[in-house]
Amino acid sequence: MDPNTNHIVIHEFPPIFRIYKDGHVERLKGTEVLPPLVNPKTVVQSKDITISPEYVIRPTITLRT
């Protein structure tokens, strides 16, 4: 892989974060890092995040464990 392509931004969500072509994520705004919650009944980890308080965009991220 060409090392110059590592710094290509493929998605940007200002002022929250950027996602780069190589997969790494850069946080632009200071956020408190908390571990996701694990639901033992569904075996799913979930965490609520706020993307835009102005437009009330608050998705829940889920990940099967």
UniProtKB/TrEMBL annotation:
It comes from Trema orientale. This is Uncharacterized protein.
